[in-house]
Amino acid sequence: MKVGVLALQGDVPEHLRALATAVPGVALVPVRRPADLAQVGALFLPGGESTTIARLLGESGLWTALAERIGSGMPVLATCAGLILLAQRLAPSTGGTDPPTFAVLDVTVRRNDYGSQRESFEAPVRFEGLRSPPFPGVFIRAPRILSVGRDAMPIAWQGDEVVGVRQGPVWGLAFHPELSGDPRVHRAFLRSVGPRR
Questions:
Q1: Which domains does the chain have, with CATH numbers?
Q2: Reduced DSSP (H G I as helix, E B as strand, rest coil) percent helix, strand, coil of the chain, to 5
Q3: pLDDT tens for residues 10-54?
């Protein structure tokens, strides 16, 4: 299976490195055009600036192609800005205009709700299916999951707060596993995907 990383903006090199560490030898495709997307069986949506990524998805022709692939069941792991782009509902945030979303995950999210860049932090995350120690969660201008609807399932918690959800083959995380130096989340996602085209 070929695995794609949306390569328009954001933590693209970090995801590629994390994937290469998690599953050595995995075939990786930086996705910049619909033709790239057509090659992959699973996709990572990186952290970055959600409004910029949304704009670039439209300009590249990837928005419609990606919506179709997600709708047909392609597995996706979305981190930070990626979570925002997949949320069904965005609560109004201060400063800036919220981007359009694919409305895939049954969650309500607010952008940058953990604070500014200077208020970024690391904290232990309890992640379903991962053994001890807790996962080192990296939160950078992170979105907050305000509510989880009945179609989505929480899979990660920082304290009592939900910071990750799953809905079918789509995972959305408020934190950055690609910046942690710990490959367990990337490995767990790829194992959940199984063999695909």
A1: 2-193 (3.40.50.880)
A2: 30, 30, 40
A3: 989 999 999 999 999 899 999 999 999 999 999 999 988 999 999
